[in-house]
Amino acid sequence: xxxxxxxxxxxxxxxxxxxxxxxxxxxxxxxxxxxxxxxxxxxxxxxxxxxxxxxxxxxxxxxxxxxxxxxxxxxxxxxxxxxxxxxxxxxxxxxxxxxxxxxxxxxxxxxxxxxxxxxxxxxxxxxxxxxxxxxxxxxxxxxxxxxxxxxxxxxxxxxxxxxxxxxxxxxxxxxxxxxxxxxxxxxxxxxxxxxxxxxxxxxxxxxxxxxxxxxxxxxxxxxxxxxxxxxxxxxxxxxxxxxxxxxxxxxxxxxxxxxxxxxxxxxxxxxxxxxxxxxxxxxxxxxxxxxxxxxxxxxxxxxxxxxxxxxxxxxxxxxxxxxxxxxxxx
Length: 330
Prior knowledge:
CATH superfamily of the largest domain: Aminoglycoside phosphotransferase (APH), C-terminal lobe
Largest sheet: 5 strands, antiparallel
Strand content: 5-15%
């Protein structure tokens, strides 16, 4: 895991933000997404430092400038985000671009153990609160918050299908299932609509409170404008996963959390959206994650993950199960 050198970063933090040495840094979120560190100065002030992982597995992800732009636009709105403090696109201080935000306290429900620490009535409140945040995001006027030029919303789904289908290689069962899913998705494109998208909206990308609120929505590195139901389909993929997809992060299956149907009804009530084609978006979410997983597997097999303990056979199995789940919704 990539370490954060406070010896190198410290002078920058002092000069740009007025923080005082000595500093300590602790990794609080890592993996294939951007890495997040809690950095504490001599006075006890804490900030969060976000940087890309050492190995970028998905082209176009881990965009620090995009994440900073979106946080700056949404801070103070109905969408709860950490306050952005600074962006550094010069890799000099730590070896990569990074951004700094205020540190937001609160639990993150990353797994079943974290969810079990919350009372059932709190779990229920969290489920509806995170949908409220998704509703607030999708009802935000991009131009009104300075994001009118973010991304290319026209043809978003078609571009996504082209992008991820281009990563499918080989003739094994998983690849064939993905090609079948691609044909089905391409042939049934629903009428498009446009909203601000998070791109990875799910339970473990929220900082919550012990009373059931969402204090901050995290990980905006994939945000853009496009079809809002892609965010809802992605959320539902991870929410109380289907039995064959029990390798996805757990927690939402515990008593108290709303059902997927309750979340869907809450979203529809908040947005007025027609959810008649929701099955398509659920299928697209599973297909997209299958394509991403297969691409990661291929990169590891080709040596991109040298020194990693990732089980590529497990990734192959997960991709196959996701591809089959996608077809079940189409």
